Amino acid sequence: MKAIILEKVSSVENKPLKLVELPVPEPSPEEILIKVLACGICHTELDEIEGRLPVKFPVIPGHEIIGRVEKLGAKVTKFRKGDRVGIAWINFSCGECNFCQEGRENLCAKFRSTGCNVNGGYAEFTLVSEDFAYPIPERFSNSQAAPLLCAGAIGYRALNLTKLRDGQFLGLYGFGASAHIVIQIVKYKYPNSKVFVFTRPHQKEHQNLARRLGADWTGATGDSPPEKLNCAIDFTPAWKPVICALEAMGRGGRLVINAIRKENKDKDSLLALDYAKHLWQEKEIKSVANITRKDAQDFLLLAAKIPILPRVQEFKLEEANEALIMLKQGKLQGAGVLRISD
Ligand SMILES: [Zn+2]
Ligand SMILES: [Zn+2]
């Protein structure tokens, strides 16, 4: 099979992803073999490539996988050959620890992630345990469904963590794959809330897309929104939006940071942290880590009901390096997806 592998840490501009020929893997008794149809690209791939996340090299990246069941392990009961399924970032949790037992398997110490600790979907075939695959609602095309599995599901989790109530003001910092799905959830679930979207100053296309999707105001990070924010989600890899969001929030405001890692280049922004201005009045900051299987399942059902319309930009498997460079430069509109087979 054709597969893309990452062998070592590198700058993404060096185009480190290599197209190779590998044998099609064999499923163990609990696993299913998936013929990959589409795989979304995610900012986390940049963190893996550029050394901000521990990766088990060599690895096939990709954790927003849509495919068809090609072959069943001997003990598989949940799927049949030909079923269309999705695989997300969560690849394994132990099921036994306190976190797993209380529904927070995303925090399990034995958590393994697709395309990082185990091979993912930048390939023609991949394996997954039947317990970590999900049926995909009919109404989505393969490319539309792919970004629902990470950008959508983690955005859904982040939105839930803000505890937004209908009528409150929400700020979104950064408007890429995840935020453009979150705004569609907000417009459906909280019709009386106003959404204010902040981007880098030159990202007019992102601001236009935000307004088309119902943003009530758009501006540059650091601008003052028309109302004090009750909640905010930061989707960016930078520090400046954290400070700006804390400043734009009113009393009791909650900021959720939806990023696995922050880049260090603008760390000096943190020196601006002022207790009275940014934290007093019971403002809160919380990160969002991984997702649970329930997040993915609940979100897929909600996405079909709304319905979410992800805006996707398609690439070939061979174009993975170029797609990730565009993602890093903030040049993708909506979500990037590798279209691997039909
Ligand atoms: Zn992701
Ligand atoms: Zn556990």
Largest sheet entry: 7 strands, mixed
Structural class: alpha/beta
What is the CATH superfamily of the largest domain? Medium-chain alcohol dehydrogenases, catalytic domain
Query: Could you tell me the strand content as a percent range?
Result: 15-25%
Total count of domains: 2
Strand count: 17
Average pLDDT: 97
Q: pLDDT under 50 segments (min length 5)?
A: none
Which term fits the overall shape? globular
CATH fold-level label of the largest domain: Quinone Oxidoreductase, Chain A, domain 1
**CATH class of the largest domain, anyone?**
Alpha Beta
Q: Helicity range of the residues?
A: 10-25%
What is the straight-line distance between the termini? 16 Å
Structure description:
The mean pLDDT is 97. The strands form four sheets. Strands 3, 4, 5, 8, 9, 16 and 17 form a seven-stranded mixed sheet that branches. The longest helix is centred in the middle third of the chain and has 13 residues, at 177-189. With 342 residues, the protein is an alpha/beta fold. It has helices at residues 43-49, 98-101, 142-145, 151-162, 177-189, 204-212, 240-248, 275-279, 293-305, 320-328, and strands spanning 2-5, 18-21, 31-40, 65-72, 84-87, 90-92, 112-113, 125-129, 134-135, 169-173, 194-199, 217-220, 229-234, 249-257, 284-287, 312-315, 335-339. Strand 13, helix 7 and strand 14 form a beta-alpha-beta unit. The protein folds into two domains: 2-150 and 291-339, Medium-chain alcohol dehydrogenases, catalytic domain (Quinone Oxidoreductase, Chain A, domain 1, Alpha-Beta Complex); 153-287, 3-Layer(aba) Sandwich (Rossmann fold). Bound molecules: zinc ion (ZN) (2 copies). One zinc ion (ZN) binds at residues 42, 44, 63, 89, 150.
